User: Which sequence fits this backbone?
């Protein structure tokens, strides 16, 4: 059997290799651990250039998490990937309404997307939330619509859907509107793994 | 609100864009839908070159799925991402032993990795399995050890861990040993999203 390294040692060595491979490239210290964890999760250095942060987005999100905020995701994969033990220790939990049977029924009846109904339900939660959107551009469009209508004030929007149709537009709109703190992967790349990694990068800065 | 496209229409258009962006690049028709779905999931065209397939791996896996085989994953994220409705309609289910409390306890007691105990448990399942490994190189090393000991005959190994430590080696070893049909992402890239996408690409070829 292989020489066994402890998971934390593997992670430390991985981050050291990432730092080495970044070479002279300087990262904003506030965002560095988020960017490196996304690279750790994807082995894709494009995220050094892709990730856009509104002013002090990470600090604001960490403050919200410390205060017990919840996280809303657009897929079960993002929910599965988030460290729920740390989140719970801070008083928060993860919600994903997208695959609820009654969400699908309501969306059909009203002629809107499941994403819209899901985000509307999240807006009705009694706590401030971080929105971790790794899949559905429609979720980002819905968030923007709800914010514009004054129905939602997210603690942070993690806008990292991946894909080829409406994806780039949905992310640029979050940046342009700048109606909430955001972390967005510009361009086509992103995904459920990236959304979960960004959440965990912030949770690990609070507690490990 | 945005003009609404149906999810299936978005997917069709996405695949058309991927095909267009591939240009003159020819893909092996047997593997084409797997490669394109991984690109659809990552927006990363590196997978055109990264993905290595043993002979007729996709056909063999589709035959196994039709016969009701199960899928074993190394993370809850891969499990969350697999289309379990289609899999169940074929008679299969998804197992993930990695985060079971008794797996952790047994691993500690025996001084082996959780991945090893998990893969050993999977080897004891009464059905042939597809192994979808998106995270843990130790899971791939464990599979190889169990196959070498004659304790395991996987229907397919999806070997797509991502990362910087032991990852490349674990995947190359699966290719060199060639002890089971495999789909492997050579190099550092991969992930839970890629592992789930490969499973779904095969499931969707059977039923949608």
Assistant:
């Amino acid at each position: 059997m292989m020489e066994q390294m402890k998971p934390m040692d593997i992670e430390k060595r991985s981050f050291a290799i990432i730092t080495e491979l970044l070479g002279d490239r300087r990262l904003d210290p506030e965002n560095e651990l988020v960017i490196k964890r996304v690279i750790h999760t994807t082995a894709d250095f494009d995220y050094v250039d892709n990730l856009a942060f509104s002013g002090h987005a990470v600090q604001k999100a960490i403050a919200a998490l410390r205060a017990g905020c919840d996280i809303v995701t657009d897929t079960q994969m993002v929910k599965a990937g988030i460290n729920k033990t740390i989140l719970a220790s801070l008083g928060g939990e993860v919600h994903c309404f997208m695959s609820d049977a009654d969400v699908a029924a309501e969306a059909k009846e009203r002629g809107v997307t499941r994403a819209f109904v899901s985000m509307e339900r999240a807006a009705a939660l009694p706590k401030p939330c971080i929105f971790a959107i790794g899949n559905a551009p429609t979720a980002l469009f819905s968030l923007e619509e709800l914010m514009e209508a004054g129905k939602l004030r997210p603690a942070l929007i993690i806008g990292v859907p991946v894909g080829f149709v409406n994806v780039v537009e949905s992310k640029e709109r979050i940046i342009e509107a700048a109606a909430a703190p955001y972390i967005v992967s510009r361009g086509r790349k992103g995904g459920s793994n990236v959304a979960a990694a960004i959440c965990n990068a912030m949770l690990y800065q609070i507690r490990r």
In short: Chain A has a mean pLDDT of 96. The two ends of chain A are 29 Å apart (CA to CA).
